[in-house]
């Protein structure tokens, strides 16, 4: 007897345990490797500079674990939502880089943590979409194709591109270069898609490209040794030159605050929401030829963004 649970049934079961259907949240979900509305057709030309906000590693449920309580993390994220709502001009989007929850999908506490994570954005201005970039805790301890499909049904596809004011954003699942290496079909599919995006950018250039992922391609320079906080050197040696040729201007990731530049690509890291640099977020200003960014703590959050840059 085959007792394997289909991926869609698994995701629906997880969502129902969390009190939501797979389509019920304020998170903008990718389909066909695109975000609805944020396409080149609508956003392919830069008319003005814009802002966006990045939050890293909210880890709902971490403060009280093993108790099933997300009050601290939900309060913190709702504070960020209030800060974002007060910003002028409105940021074009709020991107959250994994880990969304403390527990993984094969933990019983995961369902409640996901419900609280999604609910924290209920009061965010309707014109500011939430974009999720997956991290390690979004997949089972022993990742499988089923857990990948489950993630996609809950949060949308795990790699995709979108456009804002002529700038192309490329979101990657960096776990395919690490914890999910064994998922060969998904690894090769993402690599083929990424190479096609970078090749298209050389033929039909965007203003420039910004890559967003959980684990950085590199921290200090693209030839640094392998570590738990970068993509393996062999892959870097293949892909980073292609990124330069496609005019990738920045790679955004998480873990700790800092930035470095290598061959025209700036690697920008933002610390986790509960990290040692204080509870905070990073605000980016994107202009036609440059990217500016500052990290703000919750007690020092900006309102007039033009005065900050």
Automatic annotation (TrEMBL):
Instruction: Please give the superkingdom of this protein's source.
Output: Eukaryota
Which Pfam family, giving just one, matches this sequence?
Metallophos
The segment(s) forming the Calcineurin-like phosphoesterase domain are 80-255
MF-aspect GO terms: hydrolase activity
Protein name as it appears in the record: Calcineurin-like phosphoesterase domain-containing protein
Q: Which organism is it from?
A: Exaiptasia diaphana
What high-level taxonomic lineage is stated for the organism?
Answer: Eukaryota, Metazoa, Cnidaria, Anthozoa, Hexacorallia
